[in-house]
Amino acid sequence: MRKFLLIIFISFLAKASFAQSPLCTSYPTSFCCEYVSSITINGKTYNGSTGYTATSGGTGPNGYYDYAYSNNAVPTITAGQQISISYTAQTNSTYREYFKLWIDFNGNGNLSDAGELVHAVDYTWNGTKTVTATFVVPTTVFNGQVYMRFIMVYASTPTLCGSYSYGNTFDFTTTIVGAVQPPQYFSHYGRINDAEGTGLSGVTLELYKKTKAQTTYSYHDSFLTDSVGRYSIVTSLDTSDYDFQLLLPSITLGSNPSTTDATYYNQKIFTGLIQGRDYYLGDVNRDDDITISDIYSIFQKSSGAPWKAGVPDYLYFSENSWDSVYQTTSNLRSTIPGAQSITITKPVSSDSTNFNLIKTGFEK
Q: What is the DSSP letter of 18?
């Protein structure tokens, strides 16, 4: 009789939710008759199961071992050199077991790409068996940190993803050197807020590019902020080949201040929550001070008063200039430089840049 006693538990195990490495889910659902007790890769040994039951080991679902975090990384692999792998498996009768090891050479999170299966064997035995083998990482792959997955499955060849009956899954990370430097794809992140710190949705940012040999930038793509004002710029352009500019262009806010603008500002006046940045909204008569006359004008004129001729209806501020806006108590119209569009000449890849937008004032 083989392996039918635990089948009553399969439906419960299959519905469970488990935390695993970022690779696709893989774990056994049945136990009784075989397990991997240890695996050694490139000189470092990792423990596996200690017995035939579901509770004999594992870090998430039973029978799954997650070693894909930094303090357990497989020692650095040098491309072009022989790398050793050794593992010990145990059975309680004569069974055929299949073993596979994959390495995500291109770092895309999918180990099924050509050449990423580096070890595949099967054996039939009873008792304890230790397998030793070697493989060579091609020098044509990318340098950097990659994921690895090792699976043993009873009676059928392992597949990368999904659950299976009887066996073990191990996930690892390692770092490859001596191969090809991967492209450094350009990305940039940030947020655009209004004067009160609320994200502005649907604001356009434009990315411009040029090769290192060119002198003129050309338009590449545009990106919109999401519902809370965040933007995410991700490209397939290599920063070693291209330079970039990020443009926050002018936008249309409408010609009149809104009732909401005036109402909210006056609420802050009366509750004592006004801060320096709000002088843009408050100095209606442009005398460098907020007076009762200003407040009265905001109440009476907000729904119909036009902007003063020649005064922009808003200004953008970068992170550095916004610090000054937030802290000053003077008339910001003349003391703090804002802009209706901002260009970042050399945005840093994988970094972030935040902007703030405030309307420049009500006209009496």
A: -
Contacts of 346 (CB under 8 A, 6+ apart): 243, 244, 245
Going across the sheet that includes 315-317, the strands are: 230-238, 185-194, 351-358, 315-317
Q: Within the chain, which residue ranges are assigned CATH 2.60.40.10?
A: 7-177
Structure tokens at 89: 């498996």
Helix or strand or coil: residue 107? coil
CATH of 7-177, one of 2.60.40.10, 2.60.120.460, 2.60.40.3500, 3.40.50.300: 2.60.40.10
CA pair distance 24, 163, nearest whole angstrom: 10
DSSP 214-232: -SS-EEEEEEE--TTSEEE
pLDDT tens-digit series, residues 34-43: 999 999 999 9
Backbone angles phi, psi at 150, to 5 degrees: -120, 130
Q: Name beta bridge partners: 45.
A: 40
CA distance 326 to 346: 26
Q: What angle do CA 136, 138, 140 make, to 5 degrees?
A: 170
Closest CA to 180 of 74, 107, 237, 234: 107
pLDDT tens digit string along 55-107? 888 777 999 999 998 689 999 999 999 999 999 999 999 999 999 999 999 88
* Spans of the chain below 50 pLDDT: 1-19
Handedness of CA 274, 275, 281, 287 (dihedral sign): positive
